[in-house]
Amino acid sequence: MKSRLASLVLLIAAIVVLALLPALVNNYWLRIATGALMWAGLACSWNMLGGYAGYINFGQSAFFGLGAYTSALLMGDPLGLPFFATIPAGIVVTAIFAIIIGAPTLRLRGAYFAIATWAFAEVLTQFVNVVGFTGGIGGLNLPPFLDERFFYFTMFAAAVLTYLVTWALFERSRFGLKVKALRDHEPAAEAMGINTALVKLQTFVLSAVTASVFGSIFAYWVTFINPKSVFGGDITDQMVVMVLLGGLGSLWGPAIGGVGLFVINRLLWMNWGDTAFYIAILGAAIVLVVLFLPNGIAGLFAKRPAESATVLDKAVDKLVGNGEGGHS
Amino acid sequence: MDLFLQTLLNGLLIGGVIATFTIGFQLTFGVLHVIDFAVGGWVVLGGYLAYYMAAELGLDGFLAIPVAFVLFGVIGYLIGPVLYNVRNSRTARPELMALALTFGLFTLLRGGMLTAWGFNTHSVPTALSGESLSIGPVIVPLIRVAAAAFAVAIAGGLFVFLYRTRYGLAIRATAESRQNAALMGVNIHRLSANVYGLYAGITAMAGVLMGAIYSVNPEVGLRYTLFAFFVAVLAGLGSVGGALVAALLLGVIEAFVSTYVGSSYSLLAIFATLFLVLLVSPRGILQRGL
Amino acid sequence: MFTSTRGFSRRRFLGGSAFALAAGALGMPFIRTARAQVPTFKAGVITSLSGDNILGGNLTKRGYDLWADAINAKGGVEVGGDRFKVEMFYGDDQSNPATGADAAERLIVQNEVDVLFGPYTSGSTIAVQPICQKYQVPMISGSAESPNVWKAKPEFNFGIIPAVDTTAGKSLAVLVKISNPTAKTIAVISVNEPFSKETGEGFRDGAKKAGLDLVAYELVPAEGDLTPVISKIAALKPDIVAVGGHEEPLINVVKTSKSLDFRPKALIMHYGVTDPAFAQALAADANGTCGVAVWLPSVPYKDDLFGTAKEFAEIAKKKSGHEPDYTEAACAASGLVFGDAIKRLGKKPALKPENRVALKDAIAETDIHTFYGPIKFEKDGNHYHDNIQPVPVLIQIQDGKTVAVGPKDAAAAALTYPLPTWK
Q1: What is the ipTM of this complex?
Q2: CB 3.0–4.6 Å: which of B120, C138, C150, C169 could bond C277 by disulfide?
Q3: For the segment C141-164, what is each residue's pLDDT rounded down to a tens digit?
Q4: Nearest CA to CA, how far is A293 from chain C (Å)?
Q5: Which domains does chain C have, with CATH numbers?
Q6: How many Å separate Cα A114 from the centre of its chain?
Q7: Residue among A25, A118, A234, A270 with most chain C CBs within 10 A, to mutate
Q8: Do A112 and B179 touch (CB under 8 A)?
Q9: In the 8-state DSSP scheme, what is residue A134?
Q10: A287 and B CB contact within 8 Å
Q11: How many C-beta atoms lie closer than 10 Å to residue A145's C-beta?
Q12: What domains does chain B contain, in order, with CATH numbers?
């Protein structure tokens, strides 16, 4: 009880500080904070499927890009829609794509699913490169709106909403239990009467539209997008690494990993940004965390590390006589 | 008709080139169950070794091939057990942590190479670079033939090693079941060191050829990782023979789409093919392991 | 495997050190370096110091630094009889437009720069423009060559290099004019990426004006293999092959063509040929390749700071060990534009916001002659605020060296045409 009260106080304090941030720091740090919130939200979106459902999506950037391009196209000529009208449009477009892509690919497992989603993201990138209405490789400009506070609060609201939804759905509802059950053992979950295909697809679509919302805000914020800047594989890579560093399958892991990695990257970049050496430091940091903090930073604070999941895995594997477990 | 034959040859040779750096990748996945993001890093390292041997010592690029095998084989041998430990650690998702480790390794290599060797693009000179042979109307680029021959030789050599030697049997047994192999007295720790060393050596040798066919700079690694992943999945992860077939298939698709549809659609066609194959045949075209 | 006690203590140790690291990192921004006693002008450089465009990014940085070093050696920029040194601040855009915008905001807000020197890539430049507009800080771009940069009429951005759509076509016309027998057909290959594609379009549109018959126009993905495209083009036997791309694909085009034993009568590329790394990587195979240069060390221009173009080249060579190319020259000339505008404006550092707007107006009125050539910015049209004064020079690599072959009054050697076969 005590620790729950403490974490509630901590949470409220964090939200108050974040809400007051624009009054405390200059525009540059506000911009960094906006970026950090975006990455915390994106990492959380990836974690919905990757952490809770155990499906590794290597193509998450596709949904980020879909949101960004939908907003850019609708806000530009000839429609010129207002920004907030384009977010739901992005959600609809992304949800349609996610259903079309998710229904067949979610039958795949492990690395096959991962690479199928990557292939899908590449198909989409190449498509945007080649066709005319997306502006091709030259990208799209959005009408510039240069209020740093507006974007900070929009990103803040989106991030808070993302974490609220994640908490409510994955940590506090039957839906979350179903998702975790299928992660821990899909055949067993199915045997228990869970419609795993439906639950997976719901999670996939939710994860996709979350990324899409951040894509819409990002496009308006940066005012210029091109295929590489919103569909690029490095966007997915960053989400994956952030989640792993923060703690896979936990609520706060992606927030810690997303904010931490983005801010550290920016600090390294500010201080040693005139050489490429910081890339090597970043690589070394990832290696060290994997070797010495395998449960992520959130694992440091967990009462019991996520080992229990594997123990369960192994026990079930033994029951069904699948000696290898893990991959496949 | 002439262009058709030339396109077919181009496609098969592109396939041979892609196969060179996919075979070792398949071996690692088959045995260690690790998706190695760093595959492109080993390719680039091999290319740089050959470039520096040529630039500093005036040696032909081909002479770098055995050196690359030994040097990066030893480095891989040292890294293998670390990767094995992570892959079999008691974390929630060890296969993901292993992937993250190789991603970190790849980033470290890329940053290190940028810092140490700069950002210029280099080319590896060899006796066959730029040489060609005319067979009727078809022009055969010899360096690519050498790469394709290398891929076939490595695949063949691996086949003999895996299916005709006792150690090969141990590797296959490990690929099938770590526990059972360990119970039969296989030293899995050393075996994983050997396999990763073999893979890093093979891939760096392929890198020498890539430096000769294309060019090398620290930023091109990701491209090789991308193709290795895709070919591996198309083939069925872990299948060495399948890698050869899948690489040829992708090469031929790329060549024909480029020539007859439009080169801007070539990658679109490749990725779409992969995506569709996965939907129809979820375990790759050959549907079997090592 | 790890025993649980070891795991625990290690975890605790790492937790502690991670916390210390985080605390240190958070503390960093609040440590401010002491202000210099004498006021200086602060200039921010945004460019690609990592990522795909790292080569060009470093070229631009070198160019901007050459100017800063030269002007500081003289005591600084002259304003109303006094001299003020220039302090340079750098921001890496990681070859990514969004990071470029972050860098601009940082340089303006944190470092309080008076002027920005623009990114290597056009994509980053476009993403930075709104930030310049927001804070009303002028940005001088010594590299961005895409026509898209100027279409939106950026009020605070100025370009030293003429957009590629003006230069690619013009130099193609020069090539046709001096080729003997006159070239009749052309195939264009361009990599489907920013700048490269626009270069290809420049060649494609220029082909018509030069009276050439366009037999193929191929866009290739950056990761694609070139053999199919080269074979297809070889079968069409064009007189000229024109290529839009950055250095790495350019090298691959030459290697692939040779391995397929295909050599057109002329091979023309745009940027990258003048970079010494190109000739170095290809050795003898680079010979005969034509390129477009907006500037060369042999051009007949000069100014007070750097002297003649040749003298500039020597200074640059002493610093980097390489002959400078036109991007480096244009970046160095960007500094000259700033120096001239601030001198006319007569305002001392640090500039107040309204003075930065006045500085922008002063830059817009630039009309100077430098070692790089004449600089004057367009006041309207599709190339708003771009300096389209320089006449592109057609160059060719001969015996490993870059020489001017056209137009006639700039030529230092005769064009090798048609190129000999590979064997």
Answers
A1: 0.89
A2: B120
A3: 999 988 989 988 999 999 999 999
A4: 7
A5: 41-162+298-383 (3.40.50.2300), 165-293+392-410 (3.40.50.2300)
A6: 15
A7: A270
A8: no
A9: T
A10: yes
A11: 14
A12: 2-118+126-280 (1.10.3470)
